[in-house]
Specification:
The structure is a homodimer.
Chain A: H1 14-22, H2 27-35, H3 41-48, H4 52-64, E1 68-72, E2 80-84, H5 86-89, H6 92-105, E3 115-118, E4 126-130, E5 142-145
Antiparallel strand pairs in A: 1-2
The structure holds a DNA duplex.
Chain lengths: 150, 150
Amino acid sequence: MGTRGVSHRDAECPVARTVDVIGDRWSLLIVRDVLDGIHRFSELQRNLGLAKNILATRLRELVNQGILELVPAADGSAYQEYALTGRGRELFTVIVALRKWGEHHLFAEDERHSDLLEITSRQPVELHVTNAAGQPVTAEDAFVRKVSEG
Amino acid sequence: MGTRGVSHRDAECPVARTVDVIGDRWSLLIVRDVLDGIHRFSELQRNLGLAKNILATRLRELVNQGILELVPAADGSAYQEYALTGRGRELFTVIVALRKWGEHHLFAEDERHSDLLEITSRQPVELHVTNAAGQPVTAEDAFVRKVSEG
DNA sequence: CCGTATCCATTCCGATACTG
DNA sequence: CAGTATCGGAATGGATACGG
């Protein structure tokens, strides 16, 4: 990631830059796992089921991007573990958006999936696109203003 | 996409399924462009700057996934163009999440980027993760309940 | 436990040429 | 205009062996 660089026309598009940073097959799943409390290399490897060299590469890139950081292990062991930075933690919204879309469109009626719940209420977390007044905004209600259009 | 299949442990995770469907380098950018009103093959190719064969493959997969569909060209020409299905249009929230994160974390202070505005108010669109009462929920306030944990 | 080094297979991508 | 066919190179992924 980050090595390819966004195409010329996409230099000003935040979507393109984000995809360039975390738009591969593993980065978002790693972030998801760390958000879920999986911090150790071996746990990540076991849970994701990918080869160690690939995991090591992705983790290094995520650290380089300032999304993860290495911190002393919480259990007091001699090792380090991976934690989200502030920037990484804010990928929460991206994970939630992916999750909600998948829940709605990639599961059959009778098929069960994991749920993202608020800890206190134990009710599902919601995601809303709104205007400044808090009213819902759909794709049809919005447009992209380019930089050149001031 | 969709050919690799989610790993065994991830079968119940909507995030993993979504990444498996649209988690490559081009699909989300194609969806972004179609959301922005770019519907024709040649326009997509020019705007994204990718080879025609790759674009053709991606478009075919997105159609197979029920995210895009071919419809008669709006300008009355003999050709067809690509339009979002309902399922595809709902990727709007994913695009907004990617955009917002990119705006905040991948642009310097003095660097300009395109903006996503509500048409009527011309104010930036907002994204909120909330509980059922509409109160903000952060990553620390939420947890994933697995299917096995009923 | 947490990686790195190596090797190989597969996939992905870009450029080009071609077709209806 | 909207693709398909082909080819070569690059990136990615997986398995295994090894080291601090």
